[in-house]
TrEMBL record, chain A:
Name of the protein described by the UniProt record: Branched-chain amino acid transport system ATP-binding protein
Key words, A-Z: ATP-binding, Cell membrane, Membrane, Nucleotide-binding, Transport
Any one Gene Ontology BP term: L-alanine transport
A GO CC term assigned to this protein in UniProt: plasma membrane
Classification via SMART domains: AAA
Sequence ranges assigned to domain ABC transporter in this UniProt record: 11-258
InterPro entries: AAA+_ATPase (IPR003593), ABC_AA/LPS_Transport (IPR051120), ABC_transporter-like_ATP-bd (IPR003439), ABC_transporter-like_CS (IPR017871), BCA_ABC_TP_C (IPR032823), P-loop_NTPase (IPR027417)
Top-level taxon of origin: Bacteria
Gene Ontology MF: a single term: L-isoleucine transmembrane transporter activity
Pfam short name (any one): BCA_ABC_TP_C
UniProt entry tagged with the keyword tRNA-binding: no
TrEMBL record, chain B:
Protein name (database record): Amino acid/amide ABC transporter membrane protein 1, HAAT family (TC 3.A.1.4.-)
Chain ranges passing through the membrane: 12-35, 42-62, 68-88, 100-123, 143-168, 180-198, 204-223, 235-260, 280-301
Topology versus the membrane: Multi-pass membrane protein
InterPro entries, per the entry: ABC_transp_permease, BCAA_transport_permease
Family per record: Belongs to the binding-protein-dependent transport system permease family. LivHM subfamily.
PANTHER family: BRANCHED-CHAIN AMINO ACID TRANSPORT SYSTEM PERMEASE PROTEIN LIVH, HIGH-AFFINITY BRANCHED-CHAIN AMINO ACID TRANSPORT SYSTEM PERMEASE PROTEIN LIVH
A cellular component term, taken from the record's GO annotations: plasma membrane
Cell compartments where the protein resides: Cell membrane
Record GO biological process: D-alanine transmembrane transport; L-alanine transport; L-isoleucine import across plasma membrane
From TrEMBL, chain C:
Keyword Transmembrane helix in annotation: yes
Annotated signal sequence range: none
Transmembrane segment boundaries: 12-39, 45-64, 71-93, 99-122, 134-150, 195-214, 245-268, 280-306
Database matches in CDD domains: TM_PBP1_LivM_like (cd06581)
The UniProt record lists the keyword Transmembrane: yes
Subcellular location, record wording: Cell membrane
Taxonomic source organism: Chitinimonas taiwanensis DSM 18899
Protein name: Branched-chain amino acid transport system permease protein
Keywords recorded for this protein, A-Z: Cell membrane, Membrane, Transmembrane, Transmembrane helix
GO cellular component: plasma membrane
Coiled-coil intervals: none
One Gene Ontology MF term: branched-chain amino acid transmembrane transporter activity
UniProt superkingdom: Bacteria
Length: 261, 309, 382
């Protein structure tokens, strides 16, 4: 990072193992993400990137290891606890609530930061009404932030591909995360959309949200990330600033296969 | 001690019937990931049709011996239930193969009610006694009693199950079934006729169901149009207990459930000082089902069924 | 713009007023034209509407297929029956718990709702980890267990009176007036069927309002999110377990209210009224009408409730005339029709007769869903 003196640890995992039957999907993985950085995760297909993502967002329970976030122990915590602690995510294959409007999708994201229950819903007391109005206002603001406010009332499934990606980011941001985990957000995007996305990610980071990013677009990663970790066969084989990682022989081998002498 | 052995024998007999029915559930589940709710009704149809066929056959006055009449009735019932199974899949499940999961489940319930009510229309809503045509001479077995009929049921069930396992392992159709259950799309690309395999799965499962239905009728001495629900649910429990989708598991689960139920019901009264009597027998199956699903959803030998990413 | 808005508001108001008047005079019109049994039928239809709206929370909103729903109706019915009949009174005499008996309606009704809600949570909690079809079977099993216990809890202590059921249940008494006695207001005689009609109508309206408000709330959004994509809902920080339990509890409590009213209306309850087929009938109402859509569910409840009544009035005379004997039992025919309706609706019009827009969209994206499921499977193994 540009300013090493201000480095503050946000997320740390050590010795993470995850097995699926005979498959050792994650083998002793350790990494640490600092506050305010854009941290990249790359690796060949099947290297365990999405598995790691699922572990970090609580969808998978790791078999062994340590997982702390802001000093809070999140090892084997449920997804809702992880989100509450401040980690939000998007999915590689967009998983929006297709038949809800774009606005409703983002409003669902506010769920974890609001508290109206059945009684509030039934009696519509002033507190509940105010909370509901705040949810709506904040959600509209987030749609604006990612640039799709004009589609607020459209069903999510009718949005264009790029807008669906943006909507997923807005929905994740609605949970007020400190760490935003994006699983291949640029997949399937054209050059202009990718540029727009890059600017959006930089804006999000500038607004104080740390970003964890999986992406295949190496050029995008090199230009965007502060640090990059490389996974291969469930193991971390390299970590560091983009220039170093790019020239690491193990990384080259993982991507190109061992070259016969 | 002889009471225990007696309960064990009764459990084994009932359990091998459960196992035959459980195979029908598990075969369909293995291939379509669908609970064929109507399978219990197929079993009922098998029993009812056989009873009617026997009464027609014996009315001819030829004076056929008892076992021949039963076999004759069964030979009439099996093709009819196979046809019913075939039609159910074509009409109610095939069009919904890509629909949300709720949809085929609801049609399955619908089919189940329709079959049951058709049976009520035909046979009226009364128990029919199963004609007493099979030998049941008692034999002494370690101080307990086992009858000819019970021996026949267990041996026949074992033979049929062995035959089915052999079919799945060795024949072309069996290989195709295994392929479809592992990956439908790939099996299709490899030239397996998926629709044919699925149809055959229903047909074979229904045939097994008919035989099991006759066993139920013969064992309890009666059959009735609404019997399908309970017997189906128990067999489904057996399939889950063994690990749904797993043929060997269905057999193990069936026999185990039969024994749990029989031994449990036999000892429930004495153990609770008469507070809970054997009229709670039917609760056992539900309890086993719920406990298995909560604590070991993969069953004894099968895949996991909990909601996953 | 403003004027038009005002005008449409006025039209809506007039429409509502007319509808209210129709609802108010309906029992008298029905009584005069179709006979007294039809007022009774009207009352029972209201109970089914409440039941169907309760199941709609679970199946329609949260997408959880509950096949044991009638158990909550049973819990409500037995709570009311036991607290308002001589059966338990004998047992409680001299124990210091006599105060439990004959509580006012405004206490018994919430109590029935609460008990049913607690049962909803108890029965729901072990099932929530399960995939949809397993959930269906387990809830079915629970429904049967509840019925079996009601059938057998006549010993060692006689709580439920077993298969004979509980009788001599007292009718509702509200503001000091017992519903068994008719009252005359402005020369119009309101008999018990009329009084029950207005009570049930009020409760049904209450349940409709609660349903509508839940639907457009934070909780309602969470239910829809879970129904649409449970994994994504989890990833949004929704505690899916609690939110699903809430759906079970709310649905069950509506069933409990309906059951309590059933007990007081009939004056008699027995386990026979709570068989699996009843759960299926209520499910058919929700599915046929349109899962998740309140007007659709009400329509479904009315249609399916009326079918057997109409069949009874038509099929039997027809058989007598044409065949001279009764070959087909109308009840039999009714279930056959319900079964066919379930199949037919799912194949041809899965969104029901009167669907919500969202549900319609959802059920017509079969190919998309399959693709999404395949993609999800891939992601899980990525």
């Amino acid at each position: 990072m540009a300013n090493q003196a201000k480095t503050e640890l946000l997320l740390e995992i050590t010795g993470i193992h995850k097995r699926f039957g005979g498959l050792h999907a994650l083998n002793d993985v350790a990494l640490s993400i600092n506050k305010g950085e854009i941290y990249g995760l790359i690796g060949p297909n099947g290297a365990g990137k999405t598995t790691l993502f699922n572990v970090l967002t609580g969808l998978y329970q790791p078999d062994e290891g340590k997982f702390t976030f802001k000093g809070i122990d999140l090892f084997r915590q449920k997804p809702n606890v992880v989100v509450e602690s401040g980690i939000a995510r998007t999915f590689q294959n967009i998983r929006l609530f297709h038949n809800m409007t774009a606005l409703e999708n983002v409003m669902v994201g506010r769920h974890v930061r609001t508290k109206a229950g059945v009684i509030g819903a039934v009696f519509r007391n002033p507190g509940t009404k105010a909370e509901e109005a705040a949810i709506r206002a904040r959600s509209l603001a987030l749609l604006d932030y990612v640039g799709i406010r004009k589609h607020a009332e459209e069903h999510a499934k009718n949005l264009s591909y790029g807008d669906q990606r943006r909507l997923e980011i807005a929905r994740a941001l609605a949970t007020d995360p400190q760490l935003l985990a994006l699983d291949e957000p640029a997949a399937g995007m054209n050059g202009k959309e990718t540029d727009d996305l890059k600017r959006l990610m930089e804006k999000i980071r500038a607004d104080g949200v740390t970003i964890l990013l999986i992406e295949h677009d190496v050029k995008l990663m090199m230009g965007l990330c502060d640090r990059i970790a490389v996974l291969d066969y469930g193991k971390k084989i390299a970590e560091g600033v983009p220039e170093v990682v790019k020239n690491d022989p193990r990384v080259i081998e993982a991507y190109l296969g061992a070259t016969p002498d | 001690m002889d009471i225990f052995i007696q309960q064990l024998i009764n459990g084994l007999v009932v359990g091998s019937i459960y196992a035959l029915i459980a195979l029908g559930y598990t075969m369909v589940y293995g291939i379509l990931q669908l609970i064929n709710f109507a399978h219990g009704e197929i079993v009922m149809m098998g029993a009812m049709i056989t009873i009617s066929a026997i009464s027609v056959l014996s009315a001819t006055g030829v004076g056929l011996p008892g076992p021949v009449l039963v076999i004759g009735g069964l030979l009439i019932a099996i093709p009819i239930t196979m046809l019913i199974g075939f039609v159910i899949e074509r009409v109610a499940y095939r069009p919904l193969r890509k629909a949300p999961r709720l949809a085929p489940l609801i049609t399955a319930i619908g089919i189940s009610i329709v079959l049951q009510q058709i049976a009520v229309l035909i046979w009226k809503n009364n128990p029919r006694s199963f004609p007493d045509l099979l030998p049941h001479d008692p034999h002494n077995f370690f101080g307990a009693v086992i009858t000819d009929l019970q021996i026949v049921i267990v041996v026949l069930a074992i033979l049929i199950m062995a035959g089915l396992l052999l079919m799945v392992e060795k024949t072309k159709l069996g290989r195709a079934m295994r392929a479809v259950s592992m990956n439908q799309a790939v099996a299709g690309l490899m030239g397996v006729n998926i629709n044919y395999v699925i149809s055959m799965t229903f047909v074979i499962g229904s045939g097994l169901g008919a035989i099991a239905g006759v066993m139920v009728g013969a064992n309890y001495g009666l059959a009735y149009p609404t019997m399908g629900f309970m017997i189906g649910l128990k067999a489904f429990t057996a399939a889950v207990l063994g690990g749904i989708g797993n043929l060997g598991g269905a057999v193990a689960g069936g026999i185990l459930l039969g024994i749990i139920e029989s031994v449990g019901a036999g000892y429930l009264g004495p153990l609770t000082g008469g507070v809970l009597g054997s009229h709670y027998q039917d609760i056992f199956a539900f309890m086993v089902l719920i406990l298995v699903l909560v604590f070991r959803p993969s069953g004894l030998l099968g895949e996991r069924v909990a909601e996953r990413a | 713009m403003f004027a038009i808005n005002k005008q449409s508001k006025a039209t809506a108001f007039i429409g509502m007023a007319i509808f209210a008047v129709v609802l108010a005079v309906l029992p008298f019109v029905m009584g005069a034209t179709l006979g007294n049994t039809w007022i009774r039928n009207l009352d029972l239809a209201m109970l089914y509407i409440m039941l169907a709206l309760g199941l709609n929370i679970v199946v329609g909103y949260a997408g959880l297929l509950d096949l044991g729903y009638i158990a909550f109706y049973a819990v409500g019915a037995y709570v009311y029956a036991l607290l308002n009949s001589p059966h338990l009174a004998g047992m409680l005499a001299g124990t210091g718990f006599e105060w439990l008996l004959h509580m006012p309606l405004l206490v018994v009704l919430p109590l029935a709702a609460l008990m049913a809600g607690i049962f909803g949570v108890l029965l729901g909690s072990p099932t929530l980890k399960l995939r949809g079809d397993y959930l269906a079977i387990v809830t079915l099993g629970f429904g049967e267990i509840v019925r079996l216990f009601m059938n057998n809890l006549d010993r060692p202590i006689n709580i439920t009176n077993g298969p004979q059921g509980v009788n001599l249940i007292e009718p509702v008494s509200l503001f000091g007036h017992k519903f068994s006695q008719a009252i005359t207001v402005f020369g119009i005689e309101f008999r018990n069927v009329h009084l029950y009609y207005y009570l049930f109508l009020a409760l049904a309206i209450l349940i409709i309002i609660v349903s509508i408000r839940l639907q457009s709330s934070r909780i309602g959004r969470a239910w829809v999110a879970i129904r649409e994509d449970e994994i994504a809902a989890q990833a949004m920080g929704i505690n899916t377990r609690n939110v699903k339990l809430l759906a079970f509890a709310m649905g069950a409590s509506f069933g409990g209210v309906s059951g309590a009213m059933f007990a007081s209306f009939q004056g008699f309850v027995s386990p026979e009224s709570f068989i699996l087929m009843e759960s299926i009938v209520v499910l058919a109402m929700v599915v046929l009408g349109g899962m998740g859509h309140i007007p659709g569910v009400i329509l479904g409840a009315i249609l399916l409730f009326l079918t057997p009544e109409v069949l009874r009035d038509v099929v039997n005379p027809l058989q007598d005339k044409l065949l001279g004997e009764r070959v087909v039992n109308p009840e039999n025919l009714r279930m056959l029709l319900f079964g066919l309706a379930l199949i037919f609706v799912m194949l041809v019009r899965p969104e029901g007769l009167w669907p919500s827009k969202r549900r319609k969209a959802e059920l017509h994206e079969q190919d998309e869903e399959a693709a999404a499921a395949a993609a999800a499977k891939e992601a899980a193994h990525g």
